[in-house]
Structures are given as C-alpha cells and as structure tokens.
Amino acid sequence: MAKDTLEVLDHVAWTSKRELHIVGISMGGMISQELGLLIPGRIASLVLLSTAARIKNTVGYFENLRNRINLLIPKNIDVQLMEVTDRLFGPKFIDQPDAEGSFPTNRDRWGAQELKKRMDTEGFTRKGFLCQIIAAGWHHKSPEQLKLLGDRVGRDRILVVHGTADKMLTVPHGYVLINELAGDGLSSRIFEDSGHIIPFENRKEFKDMMSSFFERTEGMSKQ
User: Fold this and answer.
1) What angle do CA 90, 78, 28 make, to 5 degrees?
2) Higher confidence at residue 69 or residue 176?
3) What angle do helix axes 27-38 and 126-138 make, rounded to 10 degrees?
4) Is there a contact between 47 and 161 (Cβ–Cβ < 8 Å)?
5) Coarse DSSP helix, strand, coil percentages of the chain, rounded to the nearest 5 percent
6) Assign residue 220 a region: left if phi > 0, alpha if psi is -120 to 50, beta otherwise?
7) Whether 103 contacts 81, CB under 8 Å
8) pTM, entire model
9) Distance from C-alpha of 163 to C-alpha of 196, rounded to nearest angstrom
10) Half-sphere exposure of residue 6: CA atoms within 13 angstroms, side-chain side
11) Counting Cβ atoms within 10 Å, is residue 164 exposed (0-12), middle (13-18) or buried (19+)?
C-alpha cells in the first residue's frame, strides 16, 4: 500500500525534496512508516497518529482473544454500532452533545456515519475488512528499522500522537514508537482520555497542533 501511495505521488509530480506532509492514522500510520523508509528525503513532516510499529498484546491473552473473536461474530446492527463507537472513542467524548448540533450526541453522529458506510456494500465488504485486519497484524517495524526511519526522515520532522483511552491500538503502542524513535528533536503528544480518533475528539487542539508542526517543518525545508 505504501508503494501504491508512492505511485500516486509520482503521478501527480509531488516529487520535490521535503515537499510532503504525511499524516497517517491507525493502519495509515503503518503505511506512513513504510513510506518514510521509501522516500525519506521527500518528506517535510511525518505524523504517526494512533498507530503502531508492530501489534503487541497489551491486555492479556484471553481478553485479546475475545476482542479478536468479537470482531468476526455476526451481531445486530445496533449492538455492532455501540461496540464500534466504544472501541474508537474515549468515554468522556462519545456521549457528549454533538458539537455541530445535527445529532443528540457524538455517538449518534458517528453511528450514522458508520451505518451509511456499511450501506455501501461494494465499498465496504467483509473481504476488505478481513484483509485490513491481516495487513495491520503483519505490519512489523523493528527497533533497528525505527532508528533508521528517524535517521533518514529526521526526528525533528516526526510527531507521534496517541490517546490513553485508545482501545483499538492501546497507548503502549504509542510509547513503543516514542521510545524506539527516541532522539534529539522527536516530538510526541499523549492525549489523556482520548480514544483512537483523536482529530474528532480534540478538533481545535489537534488542528492547532498540526498547523504549528507543519509551519515549523515548512520553515526547516526553506532553510
């Protein structure tokens, strides 16, 4: 998938030195790590958001097994939507009033979006879902590879972001990235009580953080 992304970037001629701002969330963050190793000199900034260098069992064997099985067991759609929103978002955010006012709560907004997506039977397939699980499960970046990523992209161009309430990829995965990329200039941010989709839960704070990071790395590229 990183090579597919690279093919698109080449096609649109985004090929200049330090031109790309790469923000990858979840499996997108895994793809971003691969992309960083493929074209480090073209990357102005690399944001690894709610992602992992490799999947670790951080919740115990039986709970991990139960969670994996539950992903595949057919359930009533209402139960599915409740479980998905609980996995994706922090407990403080999910039942707050919808900030845009169109739905009673954030859970209702996200549930409506998820339901609309699932009505697209061609775009959202069980095969695609299973392939995504397999791809994420097989992703593996060793400490040596992460060191190489930091060396090549530049740690002052990398930002690692994670939430303490992330149930999809628990916060220890974020600390692995922080510790194994460790070096002068590396930026990191841990959002307390936030789940997997931090840009939804912390819109203004996340936007301000990204704007500041992009502005700083743009300035580095112009030097």
Assistant:
1) 50
2) 176
3) 50
4) yes
5) 55, 15, 30
6) alpha
7) no
8) 0.88
9) 7
10) 15
11) middle
